[in-house]
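A.,

Following up on our hallway conversation. Structure tokens first:
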């Protein structure tokens, strides 16, 4: 049996229960579960090792300091990830001219008229990008929602914070997450993750087994 006390940080109840079962299978007797940063910072004083999700709520802890830390990374990523298109784009001008002929807005022309003309997907993509003024506008809008959730403190990467605190205490720590490291949520702050992470899904669950076994075996994958 493992005599170190494990702290699991996970705000999803089903995932937390699954993680506890994996910890018990690995021979860990004492397990604590936190669902937010406030609880995690309280429990980590007693912990001997840590397995944490990457994104979870702060609890009743003020988030302003974390917003100031993380938002610049997302802002920088936004400017490098998404390419702007000139407002003087010839494609945009052509769409505007056609829209005037049909007596509709440029957006209505693209979505209601061009879509009925069996235009190839590449042309439709160009048209939507020209109107949005940015490459891959659907992905861009998704990223804006990610960024807004962070601004509102709903989806902060607080796994970075709790694993840093674990390392300061000399505790072995891993991150176990469903957020792929090349996704627009994870990628902007990936350089801040200084512990081993497991971001693959196994049978629809986060890979708690590998993360916990990594802790138990002293860093062997």
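Then the amino acids I'd put at each of the 221 positions:
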């Amino acid at each position: 049996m493992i005599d170190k006390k494990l702290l699991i940080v996970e705000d999803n109840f089903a995932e937390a229960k699954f993680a506890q079962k994996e910890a018990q299978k690995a021979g860990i007797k004492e397990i604590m579960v936190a669902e937010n940063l406030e609880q995690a910072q309280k429990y980590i004083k007693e912990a001997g090792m840590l397995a944490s999700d990457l994104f979870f709520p702060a609890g009743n802890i003020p988030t302003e300091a974390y917003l100031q830390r993380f938002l610049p990374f997302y802002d920088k990523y936004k400017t490098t990830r998404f390419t702007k298109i000139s407002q003087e784009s010839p494609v945009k001008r052509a769409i505007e001219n056609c829209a005037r002929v049909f007596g509709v807005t440029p957006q209505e022309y693209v979505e209601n008229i061009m879509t009925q003309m069996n235009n190839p997907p590449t042309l439709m993509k160009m048209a939507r990008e020209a109107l949005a003024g940015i490459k891959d506008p659907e992905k861009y809008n998704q990223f804006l929602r990610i960024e807004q959730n962070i601004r509102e403190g709903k989806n902060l990467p607080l796994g970075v914070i709790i694993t840093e605190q674990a390392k300061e205490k000399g505790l072995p720590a891993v991150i176990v997450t469903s957020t792929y490291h090349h996704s627009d949520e994870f990628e902007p702050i990936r350089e801040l993750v200084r512990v081993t992470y497991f971001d693959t899904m196994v049978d629809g669950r986060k890979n708690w087994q590998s993360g916990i076994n990594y802790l138990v075996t002293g860093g062997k994958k």
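The domain at 6-77+154-216 is CATH 3.40.50.2300 (Rossmann fold). Curious whether your intuition agrees with the design.

B.
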